[in-house]
Design brief:
Blueprint: H1 4-8, E1 17-18, E2 21-22, E3 24-25, H2 36-49, H3 59-78, E4 87-90, H4 93-103, E5 113-117, H5 126-135, E6 138-142, H6 152-158, E7 163-169, H7 181-190, E8 194-198, H8 210-213, E9 217-221, E10 232-236, H9 238-243, E11 254-260, E12 265-270, H10 284-300, H11 302-321, E13 326-328, E14 340-345, H12 350-358, E15 362-363, E16 365-367, H13 372-377, E17 383-387, H14 394-413
Parallel strand pairs: 3-15, 5-6, 5-7, 7-8, 8-9
Antiparallel strand pairs: 1-2, 4-10, 9-10, 11-12, 13-14, 14-17, 16-17
Helix pairs in contact: 2-10, 3-10, 11-14
The structure holds ligand 7TS.
Length: 414
């Protein structure tokens, strides 16, 4: 039984008050809160197992190395990758996408094309835009409809035999819209293009199976899925990782660095997968925390996580629309979406509204949510965003709606 009330007990921070009110944390698309088990696992690591990995033969290093490798295996199984060798740990989603852009994207030429969509987070547009300026290829922008859903007709027209990469988010961080990755994968692969999926907002909230979806690359962040900051994941198909060139060089990623006297040069070979892409001392404790976070989510079941958030989003859509002067964006109730609701209230700036909600202990994000092109496309200067997770409840939504109702009444009187 999925029970948000008992889940809440696992999150120490949810006992806090802010401005004299119990906190209502509705900023989960930015980062999630952490359960006690994740905090404890990281504390235990530093108290009992801390050492550098892949280097020494002593006991602590062996233990730390085992934990670090086990974390790769746990993540691989979470997304149904073929093996842990397809899972590269990086800093976050942003670094994972930059790694793809540098390592694979830097081979692009002026005849090539890359397609991104107008609903991307900046971290899945700006690396490609920057690269397009260096490599002189054409970057195309797939349109989004007025309700925030992807314009698949436009996508179909844009992808051609010149397309090398299709870069698309699985779930929009502004509207919660879920893109049909299987459909996009088919289109991309029919044209011999590679598909990069930004899973920052899907991996934490719904089942994600890289094989079923047919993705070539998948990027996501630990901190949005109950884990610590400073660690994220790049999944890539083994053949791609085998033939790809690393983007960071140094210790840990090499097998041999041999000085050949008669050549006056080095013979260098790269390490096995995935270590070839993990130069330098990695975030070992972060990996331990991420492993525990993944275990926590798997105990709940990702299907249950998704259903809870979808139901909460449907309830919130219904309730928020009751409030006078509120405009909600994104598709209607008939469209499947994750638990993210963007809105505005007439006569009040999004940051002011977020500050007012904060007075009552309610944390929402306001502004452009690092998705300025999408706001432009939807004709918005900015928006307020409530984003839910496993520990949010209908009562919390009711409380926000009550406060919005009071504000709306107050604004009407003035
Ligand atoms: N992609 C998507 C879809 C995101 O929502 C975010 C972060 C990122 C990439 C970048 O993740 P990072 O871990 O590398 O920073 N989104 C948000 C947000 O919506 N509010 O704050 C961060």
């Amino acid at each position: 039984m999925f029970d948000p009330y008992s889940i809440r007990e696992d999150f120490p921070i949810l006992r806090r008050t802010v401005n004299g009110h119990p906190i209502i944390y509705f900023d989960n698309a930015a980062t999630s809160q952490k359960p006690r088990s994740v905090i404890d696992a990281m504390k235990k690591f530093y108290e009992e197992n801390n050492a550098n990995i892949h280097r020494a033969v002593h006991t602590l290093s062996q233990e730390a190395t085992e934990l670090y490798e086990e974390a790769h295996k746990e993540v691989a199984s979470f997304i149904n990758a073929e093996s842990y060798e397809e899972v590269v740990f990086v800093k976050n989603t942003t670094e994972a996408i930059n790694l793809v852009a540098y390592s694979w994207g830097s081979r692009l030429n002026p005849d090539d094309e890359v397609s991104v969509t107008l609903m991307e987070h900046h971290s899945n547009i700006v690396p490609w835009w920057t690269l397009s300026k260096f490599r002189n290829f054409k970057l195309k922008y797939v349109d989004v409809k007025g309700d925030g859903t992807l314009n698949y007709e436009d996508l179909e027209q844009q992808i051609t035999e010149k397309t090398r990469f299709v870069c698309v988010t699985h779930v929009s961080n502004v509207t919660g819209v879920i893109n049909d990755i299987k459909r996009i994968s088919k289109l991309a692969h029919e044209n011999d293009a590679l598909l990069l999926v930004d899973g920052a907002q899907s991996a934490p909230h719904m089942p994600v199976d890289v094989k079923k979806l047919g993705v070539d690359f998948l990027a996501f962040s630990s901190h949005k899925m109950l884990g610590p900051t400073g660690i994220g994941v790049l999944y890539a198909r083994r053949e791609l990782l085998e033939e790809g060139e690393p983007f960071l060089f140094g210790g840990g990623m090499i097998k041999d660095v041999c000085y050949v006297q008669n050549k006056g040069d080095l013979d260098v070979s790269w390490n096995e997968l995935p270590w070839k892409f993990e130069a330098g001392t990695p975030n070992v404790c972060g990996a331990v925390g991420l492993m525990e976070a993944v275990r926590y989510l798997r105990r709940l079941g990702m299907e249950n996580v998704y259903i809870h958030e979808r139901n909460l989003a449907l309830y919130a859509l219904e309730r928020i629309e009751e409030v006078g002067g509120i405009r909600v964006y994104g598709p209607g109730k008939e469209t499947e979406r994750c638990g993210i609701i963007p809105f505005n209230m007439t006569g009040i700036d999004s940051h002011d509204l977020a500050l007012l909600l904060d007075q009552f202990g309610i944390m929402v994000r306001s502004g452009l949510h690092c998705a300025q092109p999408l706001h432009q496309r939807l004709g918005l200067k900015s928006s307020v965003r409530a984003s839910f997770y496993i520990y949010n409840t209908r009562e919390e939504v009711d409380r926000m709606v009550d406060i919005l109702n009071n504000l709306s009444e107050g604004l009407k009187r003035h």
